[in-house]
Amino acid sequence: MRQLVNYLSLWNTLFAVALMIMAYLVAVNTNEALSYSSLATYFKENQALITWAPSTGPVEHYLLEITETQFLSGPSHKNALMTKKRITSRSPFYTMICQHNHSYQVRVKAIAPTGISSDFSEPSILFICDRQKPDIRVGSLPSPAKVRSETVFITGSFKEAHLSSITVNGATADINPVMKTFSSTVRLHRGVNLVPIHATDLAGNSSTRALDITYAPVTIFSFPAAAKLYWNGNYAYPGIFSGTTPQSYNQPREGKSFLRVTAPGFNDYCGIIDFSDHSKDTYTIILSPYAPLQFTDMTSMIPKKSKRTL
């Protein structure tokens, strides 16, 4: 009868035990894991400490059943190699050596000195070891990276099976998990901008890249100053008025634009400004003074009558 009581004590103690793996060898009781059995926990250390609530009855040793899955081409059971092993432990904890891109699921039972054992506990949640940093790659940018617009659209790709987040310049990027791409619109200040891109996976691994992007709007100066600026006109039509000099302009779509500059008492300037020419950020336009035509002499266009010779 006493053996039966001990057996029931073991069984009742371990029935509700769920296992929790903690990185950095920090021991934590595992009772809370049962309600989260449908989730997965990620860690990045090469050792993990498994702990469980000790039995209130006499225990000769504990028997652990560890199911280890090696992901061959991503976290999918269709492309994985699964093995099971059993480990004995005289204490209610066990230090397990872990490998990158392997997952582990553990259950435990107690063995009494008489040989009577409890049932195995419920399987633990799935623990996935990931010790590799995310690999992020940025789409093509001009070299040197100079843009005429105060915003720039940054795209890129990533290689990480357990990605948690990607931030660009401190803001969360839009992520396409199927195509494994990300994108973000960044607002720039005038001059050189250092744009960090930070990726983190579920295990806490992180990687960072930084982009140097120069925001350089085109600036128009004139002599004399305060000349009027007109864009996208022609020689017959002045165009759209857009302020007076000096004036800076950003252009989301780079290319050539027609500019007309006018000032009272000066001849108009008509020319092309190329926003895609990154070697030139400022244009200084010198207007020539207006000089009206002046008639200083006039020659008669009526032919003189010739004298007749008699």
Characterise this structure.
The longest helix has 14 residues, at 2-15. The protein is mainly β and 310 residues long. Strands 2-8-7-4-5 form a five-stranded mixed β-sheet. The termini are far apart. The chain has one helix spanning 2-15; strands at 20-22, 40-43, 47-51, 61-71, 80-89, 93-97, 102-111, 126-129, 135-138, 146-147, 151-159, 163-168, 171-172, 174-176, 181-187, 191-201, 206-215, 218-223, 228-231, 240-244, 247-249, 256-262, 269-274, 282-286. It has three domains: 2-129, Immunoglobulins (Immunoglobulin-like); 135-215, Sandwich (Immunoglobulin-like); 218-286, Immunoglobulin-like. The chain has one helix and 24 strands. 5% of the residues lie in helices and 46% in strands. The model is unreliable at 1-38 (pLDDT under 50).
* Low-confidence spans: 1-38
**How many angstroms does the end-to-end distance come to?**
170 Å
Strands ordered across the widest β-sheet: 2-8-7-4-5
* Count of discrete alpha- or pi-helical segments spanning 4 or more residues: 1
**What's the total number of strands?**
24
Helix/strand-derived category reads: mainly beta
* Shape assignment: rod-shaped
Query: For this structure, what is the CATH homologous superfamily of the largest domain?
Result: Immunoglobulins
Provide the succession of SSEs.
HEEEEEEEEEEEEEEEEEEEEEEEE
- For this structure, the CATH topology of the largest domain is Immunoglobulin-like
Taken together, the total number of domains comes to 3
How much helix is in the residues? under 10%
Main beta-sheet strand count, sense and barrel state? 5 strands, mixed
CATH architecture of the largest domain: Sandwich
Regarding CATH, which class of the largest domain? Mainly Beta
